[in-house]
Amino acid sequence: MRETGTEHWTSELAGTSNSSGFTLLGNGFRIYNSGNFSYLKRYSYMWTATPSGSNSAYYLSNASSFSGVSKKYGFGVRCLED
């Protein structure tokens, strides 16, 4: 699922093929209280469609685990053409 190469990642990951065509990018995230960005080119963070409560949401980190966090954080979204 991860993009191959190092254009959007700090290093190549052994066994990466992106055979699914999902092309996960190392987008990091934006910290809500400072506006700074963190983990660029190191991790991928994306919101899920499923909420985790009124003030938090689930996010997907590196396509392997879901966690809940405040909706104030700036994570990526994936839009799909219908």
Quick structural overview:
The chain contains no helices and 5 strands.
Structural summary, described in words:
The chain has 82 residues and is mainly beta. It has one domain (1-82). The protein has no helices and five strands. The protein has strands spanning 29-30, 37-38, 45-51, 56-61, 65-70. The protein is globular and about 40 Å long. The mean pLDDT is 84.
Keywords:
82 residues; mainly beta; 3-stranded antiparallel beta sheet; two-stranded antiparallel ribbon; 0% helix; globular
Report on the biggest sheet. Answer: 3 strands, antiparallel
How much of the residues is beta strand, in percent? 25-35%
Low-confidence stretches: none
Counting DSSP H or I runs of 4 or more residues, the number of helices is 0
Give the mean pLDDT: 84
Helix content: under 10%
Strand order of the largest sheet: 3-4-5
Say how many strands there are.
Answer: 5
N-to-C SSE series? EEEEE
The rounded Rg comes to 13 Å
Oligomer: single chain
How many domains in all?
1
Query: How far from one another are the termini?
Result: 20 Å
Overall geometry:
globular
> Which class best fits the helix and strand makeup?
mainly beta
